[in-house]
Design brief:
five-stranded parallel sheet, 13 helices, about 35% helix, alpha/beta, about 450 residues
């Protein structure tokens, strides 16, 4: 780069001066002057004189331009705070956001100590300061002198409204969240195929639990199409057979870079997933709507992989412990069975089974026989007494008693009919006469139908 710098090592028009807190810096003091003619690929001069400058020289020139503008030296800026970070040194680093534009800002400790309120993401503020260029990063930023709150920013307000609506619908309800599989064999991963997240998950899974298969749904994790792609990736993995759990996430970034995971589309895709979902977005301090809807939240994709993939050595030790416990339990059961069998073999029931079993049964049968005999005798005695009393009551009505008084019963031999009228037989017929003692067989020699004359005692 001959001619790019004059003797002394500094570019033309650039002088060195001290700056508080940054040591010596180069200050551009004049316009960029033309340099030597540029040559083309063949070595010939192209005919236009071009000044070649270094990065530091160009940065110094831009810094001079910014800091030399009186409007930018004391400007009021309105915006919504994001990426806010209070450093241990006391400085406050944040950014102001509005309608897709972002302005980085820093408020040094001496200025931050004068404010009674604490900056936080989502707060709408008006900040006064000077625009400068930070040479190391090549970024312009606002050096804040003072800041005043204006309320809640539009982005933060919209985010809070969405959170409130989804919470009212039950998307954040802890009772609907499902447990994660203890030993997953197929893990779905929805993330960028070129980011660090996919490499971290694959590496940790291969190290801790090689049995797990990682099924990647490649998506964009930022940009206008990111919400649609992430939701589609979740639905796609729900259609893959054998998926035990899905990890949705990306590496850390600024809040505006995590916007896709704060959308309703992604939240509802997670909510309707039939497979448990682990949200692994950003770092520990970043909490998105996806984190609130998911069945489990992990601080980072690496943490999600460690959460889902058990350490194979721990599993091996656990299985070895179970095997030892099972062996001890089986041996203890066998010992108890052996002791019980030995006790049974020594028992009287097995040593003298007939005497033990039948002896008691014989005694029981004898007792039952005695009770049965006594009961039967008692019943017979009662029934005999009752029969005697009944016979005594029936004695006066007995035909035998009538016969004993001299009466008889006469029957026709032909059919055994009792004769109550003399007209019932004819002369010559056989009749039988039943007396109190004995029986007569007679032949009718005559039939008299006149009324009999009552005899004595009739």
């Amino acid at each position: 780069m001959d001619g790019a710098r004059p003797a002394g090592g500094k570019p033309e028009g650039v002088s060195a001066e001290s700056s508080p807190g940054s040591g010596r810096r180069e200050r551009y003091a004049g316009p960029l002057t033309p340099g030597p003619l540029r040559k083309d690929a063949s070595g010939g001069e192209v005919g236009q004189r071009v000044r070649i400058v270094g990065v530091s020289e160009l940065t110094a020139y831009l810094k001079e331009r910014l800091e030399g503008d009186p409007f930018l030296a004391n400007v009021w800026v309105r915006g919504e705070v994001c990426n806010c970070h209070y450093h241990s040194s006391g400085h406050v680093y944040f950014a102001l956001r509005e309608k897709g534009a972002l302005l980085r800002a820093v408020m040094f400790r001496s200025r931050a100590g004068r404010h009674s309120f604490r900056l936080q993401n989502g707060l709408a503020v008006v900040a006064r300061g000077a625009i400068g260029l930070y040479e190391r990063d090549g970024q312009y930023q606002l050096y804040v002198e003072e800041v005043e709150p204006e309320g809640v920013g539009a982005y933060y307000a919209a985010l809070e409204q969405l959170k409130a609506r989804l919470q009212a619908e039950g998307l954040f309800d802890e009772r609907r969240k499902r447990p994660l599989p203890a030993l997953p064999l197929r893990i779905g991963l929805v993330t960028s195929p070129v980011g660090a997240a996919v490499r971290d998950v694959i590496t940790i899974a291969a190290k801790r639990w090689p049995l797990a298969e990682i099924v990647l749904a490649p998506v964009s994790v930022q940009g206008d199409s990111a919400p649609y792609e992430i939701a589609r990736g979740i639905r796609m993995l729900n259609g893959v057979d054998g998926i035990d759990v899905i990890v949705v996430g990306r590496g850390g970034g600024a809040p505006e870079e995590l916007w896709a995971f704060n959308t309703e589309m992604v939240a509802r895709a997670i909510f309707h997933s039939r497979v448990p979902v682990v949200s692994a977005v950003g770092h520990e301090k970043d909490v998105t709507i996806a984190d609130l809807v998911a069945d489990r939240r992990a601080a980072t994709p690496s943490a999600a992989a460690e959460l889902l993939c058990p350490d194979r050595m721990d599993v091996a030790r656990y299985l070895t412990g179970l095997a030892h416990r099972l062996a001890r339990a089986v041996n203890a059961r066998l010992d108890r069975g052996q002791h019980r069998l030995s006790a049974l073999l020594r028992s009287r029931a097995l040593a003298r089974p007939v005497e033990t079993v039948c002896g008691q049964r014989h005694r029981a049968v004898d007792l039952l026989a005695v009770r049965l005999r006594r009961g039967a005798e008692a019943v017979i005695s009662r029934r005999s007494a009752d029969l005697g009393q009944a016979a005594a009551r029936l004695e006066p009505l007995s035909p035998l008693a009538t016969l004993a008084r001299g009466y008889s019963i006469c029957r026709r031999e032909a059919d055994g009919a009792i004769l109550r009228d003399a007209a019932m037989v004819g002369v010559g017929e056989k009749v039988g006469v039943l007396l109190h003692s004995g029986r007569l067989r007679c032949t009718v020699s005559a039939v008299e139908t006149e009324q009999p004359v009552p005899g004595p005692g009739l």
